[in-house]
TrEMBL record:
Domain of life of the native organism: Bacteria
Official protein name in the record: DUF3147 family protein
Organism encoding this protein: Planotetraspora silvatica
Stretches that traverse the bilayer: 12-29, 35-55, 67-86, 92-113
UniProt xrefs under Pfam families: DUF3147
Key words, A-Z: Membrane, Transmembrane, Transmembrane helix
Signal peptide: none
């Protein structure tokens, strides 16, 4: 249990440091509309992967990275389907339908990823 607490604390610290670094980088960028590329998501993912690699090894890091890849593909699909659903169905039904699309896409993408 103590190892799990240390791992979570280290992931939070590493993620926070990456968020800080990426925030500084985003602040220096022009135009500002590109600054979102360096938002919290990628920096927290990097921090989490770094700590996972150090504490748990390459196999666990690969599994985490595979999940992140599948989630990214699913988020892209969600971004494609959400705007038309919003205009057709309204906020609540479109959000629920979009989340279902996201979940199905994420699960499918994860299952289709090549295994070592």
């Amino acid at each position: 249990m103590a190892r799990l607490i240390v791992e979570v604390a280290l992931k939070a610290l590493a993620g926070g440091l990456f968020v800080l670094g990426f925030a500084v980088l985003a602040e220096m960028m022009t135009p500002k509309r590109l600054a979102g590329v360096f938002s919290a998501g990628p920096s927290v993912a990097l921090g989490s992967l770094l700590v996972t690699a150090v504490l748990s090894g390459q196999a666990d890091m690969r599994a985490a990275a595979d999940g992140m890849r599948a989630g990214a593909v699913a988020f892209f699909v969600y971004c494609l389907v959400a705007p038309p659903l919003l205009s057709a169905w309204g906020v609540w039904r479109a959000t629920l339908a979009g989340l279902v699309v996201w979940a199905v896409t994420a699960a499918g993408a994860y299952l289709l990823l090549p295994r070592p």
